[in-house]
Structures are given as structure tokens and as C-alpha cells.
Design a protein that fits this description.
disordered N terminus; 512 residues; three-stranded antiparallel sheet; four-stranded mixed sheet; binds protoporphyrin IX containing FE; Cytochrome p450; single chain
């Protein structure tokens, strides 16, 4: 039989197709003859889609919105744990709360590292930031600097005045638009607001210097959409990375960060030398530089992390929350009633004290983040040892692990009416207590869980609540004339963004 097939093939074949067949047979023979590593043997036992192509593996199955493609693939081939061969990099995808718990809690110590990345090595000075640093002593120290000097509850409370000042500026812009009956680009307003709040905390008074906001915006956009945006080929063909365009683009881009950050650091050094001490985060970093053995490059890497991690995520959450409220007028009315009741009439602004009793506002934040976690696949994790207990599967050492947080939040087996925006679900006593965004409810992980979880939940909550409550307290919102709805189409970078600008017309509320 085999002889017949070969004879027919020989008769009809062109020299090129014969050469291809010989090459494929040769590669198959080499593969069979090469003893498979233990890791390969273990990987071959993991559930995985069958449609794998030479060289690119499963990359062709991942569409422009990876969180959606991965959810659909997992549904068919590995609802808890699934292996994808993405180019040369085997990647395990986690898509169920039980498997997420195994990775982020039970075996957190095994999975708490980050995979090597040529792009983050360039952008973050040898990955010496916090978010992309491999697990180890450097990461521990860098994270400690950030959590003890920028993101503690006390620090977040003490930056309240600065936050309220940013809210006043945003409200003034919206009032001007309301007076002119003009639409406000809320996506842009949220983006500037989030960036200004982080800049205030990190650099003191510098952000509104001429052109700085735009500069930050450009730098972050390139970081997040062009360079770190999860599915660039570079990540999946590491041996090509050194030659490739993306690495050299990253190097050019890093130079622009260098210029900005060196300028900021020099300014702070001069200020301290002149005895003007303000105690923003750059001042603190410089004062603890020796204690933590940080080089100037380490300081720059940590600073980029703060701008990077702090700006887009916050603006995306606000943008999606406001978009959902506009699409769900009952939820908007309920939130408006709560904010106005808890704040009282005739106030210049909603303050942080007023926020503490606003339960529905907190439910809106959770519900919006359940449906639209900005970091839908988090930052990849990396196994530092073999782990034989992830929902009955063994994951070898040295494997990239993606957690599809977006899929967890929409899992119909865990959530009633999973695709609907229903903040009420978080108003029930039990649900309210369990689903705290602190990484204890493995169906709801917008900030992750475990050792690598986001250290900025308090900071983010304070920023999110104060601006949203004020926009809702002072204004009623309408769609611009001639528009019929709000587009929820997404685009993917390192985060998931709403594609369209959120243009809304504010009307000053008369009854508050
Ligand atoms: C809506 C806002 C935010 C969301 C949804 C968010 C979400 C996340 C997620 C999912 C991770 C990765 C967790 C993991 O890999 O297990 C992370 C890490 C991180 N986030 Fe956030 N984040 C937000 C805001 C911020 C802000 C405002 C800052 C700082 C100013 C910040 C700083 C960081 C840092 C430094 C890490 C790396 C932690 C580590 O690797 O040890 N984030 N964040």
C-alpha cells in the first residue's frame, strides 16, 4: 500500500513537491530520533487544539482580540488548562476559577515569575521594573519600595488633596462644555485625569508643564499598543528578537523615556540640593536609593512602570464603566440617586468622606471590571519548577502561563446572566463580602491574586470613585444629537480598550 502511494506520488510529482516531501520526511525522522525532553513529554499530555501548523504552531488560531479567541479555544479544547504552541513558545492558558486558584494561590510560589522578554528587557532597563522583573530578591525589593512609599493606605489618603484638585480641573472642563451644550470626549478626559493623578503622586507638580501630558500619552501609547501588546511575534520567536525591528524600535522609544526621566530626576536632585523638599515618589526613590541599592536605570524602570501600569488601566475602567452606565439607564439613575443622596445638596464637590457609604458605586466598579478587566490576560506568569497539581495536569518548569481573567468574569457556569451589566449582583450581602477585588474570589480577578497581584487597588479605587461620583453628581449625561448608541467594540494592546471615543453631552443637574 505504501509502495503504491509512493509510486503514484513519484509519477505525478514536480521536483519542488518531491523536495518538500523529502524535507518533511527528514524533519519527521529527526523529530522521532531526538529523545524528547521531560518537559516535552509533559506538555504533550496537556489538552491542546489539534490544528497546529509547522513553525507558527497555534498562532493562526489567535485573532486580533486574543482574550476572546483564547476563551473560545478553551471552551473546545481545555476549559481549565490548555496548551498552545505559540511560535516557539509553549504557553499554558488558564480559563477556570479552580485552575486560577491552583496557579495563583495553592502554587503561587511556583508561578510567581515572569517569562523572559526581549522587549521588556529593552524598555525596562533589563526588566528591572516591578511588573516584568523575574521573581527574586531584586523584584522583592523593587515591589517593597513601591508598596511602602507610594501605594500604602496612608499614602493614598495623604494624596487626597491632589486628587480632589485634579477632579476640580476636570469638572471645570465639563462645566465649560455644558455651558456651550458641546460634547465632551470623556475617553480623553479620563486618560488625562488618570495620568495627572499618577504624575502628581510620582513627580509632584510637573505634569501640566507645557506638552508633558501629550508626551506621556504618546510614550504610553507606544509602550502599550505597539511594543508590549501581548501578541507581537517577537515574544513567540525569541531567537529572532535580537535581529528584529521591534527590539530596535523599543530601543529608540526607550531613548525618549530616557530624555524625559533624566530631566525629571535631575530636576529633583537640584531641588533637593536647594533645600526644596516636596516628598513626591521621585524624592523618595532618590532618598532610599542607597538603602535599596538602586541604580539610576533601576529608578527609571520603576518610574516607567508606575506611569505605564497606572494610567491606561484606570482610564480604561472609567471609560467602560461610564459607557455601561449610559447603555443601562436604570443603573445610571440608581447610581445618580445614591451619589446625590449620600453627598447632600449644594456641595461644591463629592468628597472622599461622602464616598464611604456609596455601596452601589462600589458595585458598579466591580461589575464593570468583571465584564471589562483592563488587563484581560494579566501580565504573563512563568513556572519556576514543575507543578503536578493544576486541576489534574502537570505543568513543566519554564513555561509561560496566561490567565484569562476576562473569561473568568464571563463564565456562564459561575455568573447568572454573565454577559449582562447588573451591579445589583454585588449588592447582596454574601456576594458583596466575597467579591472584594482583593484576589479572594477567583471568578473576579481584575487585579490578579497572590504574590504578583496589583499593589495599587486602594490607589485605583480612590481615583476611580472620586471622578465618577463627581461627574454623576453634577451632571446629567446625554448622547450627542444624531447618535443612537455607544459602541463597545474592543481593541487590544497590553490592555483591552474601547475602540470608539466616548463622546457625551453634559447638562448641569439643577436639583443638586
Ligand atoms: C484599574 C486599574 C488597574 C488594574 C485593573 C490593574 C491590574 C493589574 C494586574 C492584572 C496586574 C498583574 C497581576 C498578575 O500578574 O498577577 C497588575 C500588576 C501591577 N500593577 Fe496594576 N492595575 C491597575 C492600576 C495600577 C496602578 C494605578 C498602579 C501604580 C500606580 C499599578 C501598578 C502595578 C504594578 C507595579 C504591578 C506589578 C506587580 C508585580 O509584578 O509584582 N497598577 N495590575
Amino acid at each position: 500500500m505504501a509502495q503504491q502511494v509512493l509510486a503514484q506520488l513519484y509519477e505525478h510529482a514536480t521536483p519542488q513537491s518531491l523536495a518538500l516531501v523529502v524535507l518533511l520526511l527528514f524533519l519527521a525522522a529527526v523529530r522521532l530520533a531526538t529523545p524528547r525532553s521531560r518537559a516535552e513529554k509533559l506538555l504533550s499530555k496537556l489538552p491542546s487544539p489539534p490544528f497546529r501548523l509547522p513553525v507558527i504552531g497555534h498562532l493562526h488560531l489567535v485573532g486580533p482580540l486574543p482574550h476572546r479567541s483564547l476563551r473560545d479555544l478553551a471552551g473546545q479544547h481545555g476549559p481549565d488548562v490548555m496548551l498552545l504552541r505559540l511560535g516557539a513558545v509553549p504557553t499554558v492558558v488558564i480559563s477556570s476559577p479552580r485552575a486560577a486558584k491552583a496557579v495563583l494561590r495553592t502554587h503561587d510560589h511556583v508561578f510567581a515569575s515572569r517569562p523572559p522578554s526581549a522587549v521588556s528587557d529593552v524598555l525596562f532597563y533589563g526588566s528591572t521594573d516591578v511588573g516584568f522583573a523575574p521573581y527574586g530578591e531584586y523584584w522583592r525589593q523593587a515591589r517593597k519600595v513601591v508598596t511602602t512609599h507610594l501605594l500604602t493606605v496612608r499614602k493614598v489618603r495623604s494624596s487626597r488633596v491632589a486628587r480632589e484638585q485634579e477632579v476640580r480641573l476636570a469638572l471645570a472642563r465639563v462645566r465649560a462644555a455644558a455651558a456651550a451644550r458641546a460634547a465632551v470626549d470623556l475617553s480623553e478626559l479620563f486618560s488625562c485625569f488618570a495620568n495627572d493623578v499618577v504624575c502628581q503622586a510620582v513627580t509632584g507638580r510637573l505634569p501640566r508643564e507645557q506638552g508633558r501630558n501629550k508626551l506621556f500619552h504618546d510614550l504610553l501609547e507606544t509602550n502599550n499598543t505597539k511594543l508590549l501588546g501581548g501578541f507581537n511575534l517577537e515574544e513567540y520567536f525569541p531567537s529572532l528578537a535580537r535581529l528584529s525591528v521591534v527590539s530596535s524600535e523599543a530601543a529608540k522609544h526607550r531613548k525618549r523615556w530616557d530624555d524625559l526621566l533624566d530631566g525629571l530626576i535631575d530636576k529633583h536632585v537640584r531641588k533637593t540640593a536647594n533645600g526644596e523638599h516636596e516628598e513626591d515618589f521621585i524624592d523618595v526613590l532618590l532618598s532610599v536609593q542607597e538603602e535599596y541599592s538602586l541604580t539610576r536605570d533601576n529608578i527609571k524602570a520603576i518610574l516607567i512602570d508606575m506611569f505605564e501600569a497606572g494610567t491606561d488601566t484606570t482610564y480604561i475602567s472609567l471609560d467602560f464603566a461610564m459607557a455601561e452606565l449610559m447603555r443601562n439607564p436604570k443603573a445610571m439613575a440608581k447610581l445618580q440617586a445614591e451619589v446625590r443622596r449620600c453627598t447632600g445638596k449644594g456641595k461644591e464637590m463629592v468628597t472622599e468622606e461622602d464616598l464611604s457609604t456609596m455601596r452601589y458605586l462600589k458595585a458598579v466598579m466591580k461589575e464593570s471590571m468583571r465584564l471589562h478587566p483592563p488587563a484581560s490576560l494579566m501580565i504573563p506568569h512563568f513556572s519556576m519548577a514543575e507543578c503536578d497539581d493544576v486541576e489534574g495536569h502537570t505543568i513543566p518548569s519554564g513555561i509561560r502561563v496566561l490567565l484569562n481573567v476576562w473569561a473568568l468574569g464571563r463564565d456562564p457556569t459561575c455568573w447568572e446572566s454573565a454577559e449582562e451589566f447588573m451591579p445589583e449582583r454585588f449588592m447582596e450581602e454574601a456576594m458583596d463580602a466575597d467579591s472584594d477585588l482583593q484576589g479572594n474570589d477567583f471568578r473576579l480577578l481584575p487585579f490578579g491574586s497572590g504574590r504578583r497581584m496589583c499593589p495599587a487597588i486602594k490607589f485605583t479605587t480612590a481615583t476611580f470613585e472620586i471622578i465618577l461620583a463627581n461627574l454623576i453628581y453634577h451632571f446629567n449625561w446625554e448622547l450627542p444629537p444624531g447618535t443612537t448608541g455607544i459602541g463597545m467594540t474592543e481593541t487590544y494592546g497590553i490592555n483591552v480598550y474601547r475602540k470608539e471615543k466616548l463622546l457625551l453631552v453634559p447638562c448641569i443637574a439643577q436639583d443638586v
